[in-house]
């Protein structure tokens, strides 16, 4: 009976040492759910929150990269239209001959081609100005009866504002790319092609095309009128640049907030399932001393055998 009690208590002490050693090596006080069911449930909820925060953080990073690409494209479009404005002002002074006007028209045509390229800018494999059409180039120039006409997602941009195209126009104008950047919080981080080039006969491409025609025909009235029109188109792009800057600032604020939430939840998780290393280490040392003392005491119980009594 003495030996059985000794072995049972010795094993109990040894198992407790094993638990403490596992806690020290893992840094966790909860090794299985039965150790502390309520704390286990709380830890699982905290882990779930941390995972959501990491997903939101990834979304914010992607959204910021999208905005950066958008800003780059808008800056390029702004430069292109700005150059057209300079050329239009130069052409409107009335002192240019036919050769000079044709040279200006040639340069504007090159700028128009680059404008389409910039409007088809992509982020990875996704077109940033395509609305819901992110997998193919949204803008395409087609020859219609000898006239260059720009199409957006398969629709003639010049005719998109006609009454018979109202449904398609409203659908295309409302298309946006949204990112979920927080619990129940979605943010529109995109512009569609109509935001960039406009729609109807006064869209940017059609306006520049009419300007080229006027330059080649020497139509000073249309050239003069185009100065204010081109300037207005550039102001729209500048306005979009300010808007994308505001979106980026908001994303920066969300990123900081998510970083703070992640730190807070990490601390909460450590408090819930973590250990006090100094306390556990002291307890382990105490258990170890007791175990060693028990082994020493046990040697005195187990040494006597039948042979000792037969001497």
Mean pLDDT: 85
Q: Tell me roughly what share of residues is in helical segments.
A: 55-70%
Question: For this structure, what is the CATH homologous superfamily of the largest domain?
Answer: f41 fragment of flagellin, N-terminal domain
Strand order of the largest sheet: 3-4-5
Number of helices: 9
Which CATH class of the largest domain? Mainly Alpha
| Biggest β-sheet strands, sense, barrel | 3 strands, antiparallel
Number of strands: 7
Q: Which stretches of 5+ consecutive residues score pLDDT under 50?
A: none
The CATH architecture designation of the largest domain is Up-down Bundle
Question: What is the rounded distance between the termini?
Answer: 24 Å
CATH topology of the largest domain: f41 fragment of flagellin, N-terminal domain
Plain-language structure description:
The protein has two domains: 48-266, f41 fragment of flagellin, N-terminal domain (Up-down Bundle); 276-311. Helix content is 69%, strand content 9%. A hairpin with a 2-residue loop joins strand 3 and strand 4. Strands 3-4-5 form a three-stranded antiparallel beta sheet, covered by helices on one side. Strands 1-2 form a two-stranded antiparallel ribbon. It has 311 residues and is mainly α. The longest helix is centred in the first third of the chain and has 55 residues, at 37-91. It has helices at residues 2-26, 37-91, 98-119, 166-174, 193-197, 204-217, 220-273, 277-302, 306-310; strands at residues 122-123, 126-127, 139-144, 147-152, 155-156, 178-182, 185-188. Helix 2 packs antiparallel against helix 3 and helix 3 packs antiparallel against helix 6 (204-217).
